[in-house]
Amino acid sequence: MSRPRGWRDSCQTYKPQMCFLADKYTIAIMKDIILEWRGPFGIRDTIPKEHRGWPGIYLVEAETEILYVGIAETEGAHKRSKDHFRGQGDSIGRWILQGRDASQIHIWVARKSWNKLLIDAEGLLIYSLKPVANVEGVDSYHGKPICIKNMGSYPERLTKEIQYNVDRSKGPTSSSKVQ
């Protein structure tokens, strides 16, 4: 039996924008989502002009621990992440700052056009990283099979690729960060 056009056994090449995964019961198309990360930014830093208004995903990190993964549709990921810490902050920001100095908190942002797969990418990041400030999605992932490819400047704890297997019993897999 010949393989379908664009077949890859894993998402380790960057050529096609999707790969086909197969087991003896299921054939699924896994879509690649490329996240171009920028950071780290301090929570008290001014938002750089070139980063204002970016929709996308953001991470809040203290030292090397990712504490929170969030998403911003229209207001910009960098602005949304900083809203957790403005003034008295919201409950997430207050919890993150509890026992930590603001200079220890860093924000990473990935610009991405808004679509349904961005919600899946946020869900897979939450499921695979299990950030302590995220409540929902830490124990299960219900999105489509996707392969997140992290590029640019991203936190040490993030790996180069995170993908969700068709065999949902295996959970997310990741490959090590390429330096």
Q: Please tell me the total number of domains.
A: 1
Indicate the CATH topology: GIY-YIG endonuclease
Shape by Cα distribution? globular
Low-confidence stretches: 1-18
Helix content: 10-25%
Count of helical stretches: 3
* Architecture (CATH level 2) name: 3-Layer(aba) Sandwich
Structural overview:
By secondary structure, the protein is α+β, with helices and mostly antiparallel strands. It has a single domain, classed as GIY-YIG endonuclease (3-Layer(aba) Sandwich), CATH 3.40.1440. Helices cover 16% and strands 32% of the residues. It contains 3 helices and 8 strands; from the N terminus they run ββββααβαβββ. It has helices at residues 77-83, 91-97, 116-129; strands at 18-22, 27-42, 56-62, 65-72, 105-111, 146-152, 161-164, 172-175. Strands 1, 2, 3, 4, 5, 6, 7 and 8 form an 8-stranded mixed β-sheet that branches. It is globular. The relative contact order is 0.21. Residues 1-18 have low confidence and may be disordered.
